[in-house]
Amino acid sequence: MSKAPAAKKRSRSGSTKKTKSSESDLFAFADAGVNQKMTVEEKLSCFTEMVRIRKFEQAALQAYQKGRMGGFLHLYIGQEATAIGTISVTGENDHIITAYRDHGHALAVGMNMNECMAELYGKYTGCSKGKGGSMHFFAPDKRFWGGHGIVGGQTPLGLGLAYALKYKGIEGCCLCYLGDGAVNQGPFHESLNIAGLWDVPIIYVIENNGYSMGTSQKRSSAHPDEGLAARAEGYKIDWDRINGSNLYEVRAKTAAAVARAHKESRPTVLEVMTYRYYGHSIADANHHRYRTKEEIRHYQETKDPINVWKNILIEEGHLTEEKAKEIDAEAKAEAKESIRFAEESPFPPAFELLTDVYHSVDNPGTHTNEGKIFFNDRLPFETR
């Protein structure tokens, strides 16, 4: 078997050279065009939004542990710079779709804590009327096409969103997020094949937190030395790796991929090296068995994305420790209020059981199907 060619290099400007993820130099990508254009307000907003995600997740964890909500709970704590950094460089015609660890992306696109927390509680005021739960936040008005519970199931859907943009002649793209555990799923590779063949403007963002559902990447995924994203070369798709602790780097490399999608209608695979502080879900009680407490502590102390960005802003003179504490307190209060809102909200009424299942049910007279929707002799909107 012949050896695969060496990976191409890419620079900060998106040219043909690849840069290394820089963990030691926090300002390595500060001079990228997309970052030079950032105002002080935008930089502080990114910090605030990351803190809001952290506080929302911490509040959700406490409520879950008290038995106030059921189902799964996949926390985004430790990965905040990925959602905020990538989504912060998108435009009005760019769309977002992700997997089941979707709380961070939901808040990043502008969903509020109340509707998200209420959804966790299964309440009618939730973003999906209490019928989706943790894994199925949606906000079509914000071009956020939700979290999806089937591993890798969102990857062909994201491809379809991106293809629709191309088909309609709209300059835009779709950011489709997946975890490192989904990279071996067949639908993902089928999607890469079509994206490479048809020049579809999609950006696949692999949020590599290292352990899938509980198995390390080294034990689960064969890949080139350059990483999981390098597999994209098999489909003639551009790729890059990103230090997920540094917002500057996340923004710079995502912006290059967005420009490629907009101007060339070409796909990109980005691998963001990040980390989750908790298990795959809160039901993953054994996450200390496949990694050590020391490993988790080391990441928290040296690579926490919120602390990294805070230190950058302090060094740049845009933030103080006192202001950071104030932002933290405000986000904590907002999260606490979302708990109150969810607690006091009603559960969905019984009639909602049959809504949002089929478009033709909710829109009588528009159906074109010839079959029957339910196991009876009539359509739900027909009279006997």
Tell me about this structure.
It contains 13 helices and 7 strands. By secondary structure, it is an alpha/beta fold. It folds into 2 domains: 9-345, Thiamin diphosphate (ThDP)-binding fold, Pyr/PP domains (Rossmann fold, 3-Layer(aba) Sandwich); 349-384, no CATH class. The chain has a 5-stranded parallel sheet with strand order 3-4-5-7-6, with helices on both faces. The chain has a two-stranded parallel ribbon with strand order 1-2. Helix 9 (247-264) links the parallel strand 6 and strand 7 (268-273). Helix 2 crosses helix 3 (80-87). The longest helix is centred in the first third of the chain and has 26 residues, at 40-65. The termini are far apart. Residues 1-17, 19-23 and 378-384 have low confidence and may be disordered.
Q: What would the CATH topology of the largest domain be?
A: Rossmann fold
Largest sheet: 5 strands, parallel
Corresponding CATH superfamily of the largest domain: Thiamin diphosphate (ThDP)-binding fold, Pyr/PP domains
User: Architecture of the largest domain, according to CATH?
Assistant: 3-Layer(aba) Sandwich
Cα distance spanning the termini: 67 Å
State the domain count.
2
Q: What is the structural class? A: alpha/beta
Mean pLDDT, as a whole number? 88
Strand content: 5-15%
Number of helices: 13
Spans where pLDDT lies below 50 across 5 or more residues: 1-17, 19-23, 378-384
